[in-house]
Design a protein that fits this description.
Elements lengths: L1 H45 L4 H5 L7 E7 L6 H9 L6 E8 L5 H9 L1 E4 L12 E7 L5 E6 L4 H11 L4 E5 L4 E2 L3 H5 L1 H5 L3 E10 L4 E3 L2 E4 L6 H21 L12 E5 H6 L10 H15 L5 E12 L5 H21 L10 H16 L1 H18 L4 H28 L7 H34 L20
Parallel strand pairs: 1-2, 1-6, 2-5, 8-12
Antiparallel strand pairs: 3-4, 4-5, 6-11, 7-12, 8-11, 9-10
Helix pairs in contact: 1-8, 1-13, 1-14, 8-14, 8-15, 11-12, 11-15, 13-15, 14-15
Amino acid sequence: MILDFVTTVLAGFAWAVFAYFIVVNGCQTALLISATAAMRRHRQRVWQEDRAGLLGSAVTPTISALAPAYNEEANVAESVHALMMLQYPALEVVLINDGSGDSTLDVLIRTFDLYPIHPIFRNQVQSQPVRGLYRSKIHPQLLVVDKENGGKADALNAGLNCATGELVCAIDADTLIEPDALLRIVRPFLTDENVVAAGGTIRVANGSTVAHGRVLDARVPRGLLAGCQTVEYLRSFLFGRLGWNNLGGNLIISGAFGLFRRESVLEVGGYTHDTVGEDMELIADLRRRGQDRGTASRVDFVPDPVAWTEVPESWRVLGRQRDRWHRGLTDVLRRHRGVVFNPRYRALGVVVYPYYVVVELLGPVVEALGLVAVPLGLMLGAVDVAFAALFLAVAYGWGVLLNVAVIALEELTYRRYQRWSDLLLLLFWSVVEGVGYRQLTVYWRLLGLWRYARGSKDWGVMSRKGLGTPARV
């Protein structure tokens, strides 16, 4: 009697999870189709664009690049040199020294011949006190903000207060931005006044040849963790975020490289301090404010501006990262739960937010149930071998096909990897990613849910090996 009940429950769970995977992979397929159409239109629009003309245009909006730095004495000068090499006619670089305990500020003063200026600025968003402002005699467009320590969000808020650009570009210190990326990512702001934010593609730099702050030879990583993450990043950016351009707009702009309308960011109070998902929280605030005011606050993804980042190659560090990402996602969705399934917010409320709740937030819970229910159901006779094979095909095989499709999209468009060996390795990682690695990410995301429920808001230590020497002018 009890066994019959257990087998019935297991069979029900197995079928429910099977249906869930059909819905999720169906959504992913819809995003891929949308992304393919968006990519085609995008390439047609920019085929004959005049980026050289933009460099000399009098109407080009000014951009302030905000780069927080904390205890970066070894690399901060080279990082600033790399930012100064970005191709843009009206660029201000704002380096925020977030209360470093080492000689970061002294290095900047010596290297760039900084001199103190009177700290006159409007304190429009909350941040820790600014101790001083410095301007460079060598590069007048370089502004250094020295402040008390407050964390990344706080440092960016201080940068927002001191910046003068119409647009602000939030950049992680360890991100390698391609020289013409700003010229590419600024496009949506030139053609649509409702655009409040835009993001570019983040690619994995591990295994590539890096010199002077530039990726000279893009290669697919040979290591398991970095290789699987390369496939993840391609899937996330090339069809995940690009696909959302046509289906209600994006809810995520990577904190490593994003461009924002400064006035809009100030109006929502800047970056939120008490969350580990400050990047997503800012986008959620911008989009919600636009809907509340009856304006279409657009957040666009632009596929061709590229920034490169180093991804974790340690199981422990990667686990901390995915734990933190899921806690950030959970926190943002909780803060904006009033938007979910709310028709007042149109596509944002009835399409975008429900997707993030059902697919992204609850995904690890449902997938974990499937990992338990199907094997146990096979053992107890609740499901048969034919069902298990069908389940595997939908849950795993469909995902592999999506991975292969996004690799094909990459090859037909930008083709950053020039060698056949890299293409074959990328296809190999697209198959391997679903076995073992994906199940570990499920565990880490579940851990993030558990830790969020217990009130954890720490970032954890994100140690890196380093990619090479940043650029020098």
